[in-house]
Structure formats: C-alpha cells, structure tokens
Design a protein that fits this description.
Structural class: alpha/beta
Number of helices: 10
Helix content: 25-40%
CATH class of the largest domain: Alpha Beta
CATH architecture of the largest domain: 2-Layer Sandwich
Order of helices and strands: EHEHEHEHEHEHEHEEEEEEEHHEH
Shape: globular
Radius of gyration: 20 Å
Oligomer: single chain
Strand order of the largest sheet: 14-13-12-11-7-10-9-8-15
Length: 341
Amino acid sequence: MYKSVIIGVGGGRAHGHADAYQYVKRGRVVAVCDLLQEPLDDFGDKFDINARYTDYREMFEQEKPELVQVSTPPNVRLGVLEAAEAAGVPLAIVEKPLAIQGEDYVQLRDFAARKPKIKVAINHQLQFHPRRQRLQQLVADGAIGDLRFVEASSGMNLAYQGTHSLQAIGAFNPAAPTTVFGQVSGADGLQPNVKAHYAPDQSLAAVEYDNGVQATLRCGENAPRVPRGDAIYQHKRIAVYGMKGYIHWTMWGWETFIDNVYESGEHEYPDEDVLGQAAMCEAMFDWLEDDRKAHPLNLERALVDFNVILALYASSLNHEVVEIPYEPEANLVPKLREALA
C-alpha cells in the first residue's frame, strides 16, 4: 500500500483529495501538513489522520511517502517540489493553477527541463470523471469523425479555471497549440487576494492547433452558465464538433449527436468528482510502477496549457496573434493590472 501525504488542508480541495481515498485501492493518506494548527487538527480529526505536521520537510523525512498532494498557493509550490525531490518522494500531484504569471512559469519550466526524479501531475481531476472518460473515448474512437472545432468555457477567471478548460480541450484534441489571439477585461480579479490568484475578470481567446482544429476559450463573467450550476465554480463545460456529430459535457450533464442520433442525460458532479480524484491517484501509481505509463496530466503538458494563458495575456496587451511556444515578457500580470485599471 503506497503512502500519501497532503500539504495545505485549510481549503476545500484538500478535503476532496482525502475523500477520494475511500476508492483508492493502492494508497492511503498517512499524514497531513499545514502552517496553521487549527485547520490541521480539524482536518486530521475529520479523516482520522494522527500524523500532523507544520513543516513539510519534517513530514517527508519522517513518513517517507510515495505521493505528496500539494494544495498550497502557487507561489510556494516550486519549493515544495524541490524539497520532495530532495527527500526522495517519487510522486507529486499539484493543485491547479500550475502558475500565475510568467516568472513562476519559467521557474517551473526550468525545473521540468532538468528532468527531475520526482514525477509531477497537475490536479485536473475532471479528466478522470467517469462520464468525461466515456465521452473522451468516443471522440478518440472516431465516433464524431474528424475533429473540426472545440468550444470550452468556465465560470471563474483564468487563474481559477482557465487551465481546467485548456486541459479539457487537450483531452479531446491532443494536438499542439500553435497560435493564440485573445482579449481580456475587468481588473477586480487582478487585485490582492488571499489565494494569490490573479487574472482578468473575463477573457476570450481563439486557439489554433497543429492538426487544423480551432478552439475558443471563455473564462469568467462572459462564460455561458450551466443548468443546475448553483455555484460559480460549477459552470465548466466543453463542446467538441466533428464531421459526424458532436459531444457536449457540463459538470451536471451531457449530450451527444452522432450519425443523426441524439442522446442526453445528467450526472451528479460530487459523485463523479470523488471517483475522478481516485482514478487520478491510481494513474499516478501506474506511472510509478511503469515509466511508459506517463500520467496524462503530467507537468510538461500542463506547462503547454499555461503557456497558452500567458500568450493570451500578451495578445490582449499587444493586440496581435501570438505564436506558441511563447517566451513570456516580464511583468505580464502587473501590465494587465495597469492596462485594465
């Protein structure tokens, strides 16, 4: 049985990680870490985890886990990954977003470029939701024919959900992005906040891929709202169009139109999410056991998605189409804050 630990237990996402372990067959949570004692004790009591730390380096040394799940703010994650690698931890799942601005993106890109011993994936558990898995397989099997167009959106801004939407596009269309043309507006999301997540309030982008597929991305106040979506984070959706039909997934439902046959239905997001989170962990253990089974949400692929967001920012600032890969100019987020103020 593999040992897992969780860092940063004050937010809801860490609870989702721990809930999933009722369905994880090859792992168990043995310890948790947080800077603050009160949320650490509340979390430990809720999930019956007695090993509690306020120093993750001490936790790595004492527990010697195989998997660390990181739910910290983005600006401290590189330090956690470096410490985990130094301690011999072989696996890490990092909460999204991977980064916030060009500077931390470059640091993580350089970390990945040196081929660290630790295997890293980003926590886009929607990839593993049972319904999403079935729809993704339909598209991969050619059920809707050759792909032509993808449309993805999220109710929250790019910092909170942008990479969710880009990862969804990649799950159905695993091609390389080549250009981005985008626009943004609204500066409220660029102001100081507790989670250190900074992004314009709304965004719109056209993304082209090297297989000829085009995609649109909408994140924030301008995104379509999803039926049954009571909370702002529940308005994620994706539609994929091919020569023989289309599929459409939301956090609460789905529909397909294939060879002139229409089908639709609903699913329960909480039920899908806990199973998706568990399947994501199992895929990490597959990767640990076999290097050929690279996790589909690995760090290298996540860096490509975040590079699209940075290119979107540059496109909106400079009023031009930006080619991918994009080498980010300095101070993109401060420049956006100033331009949108």
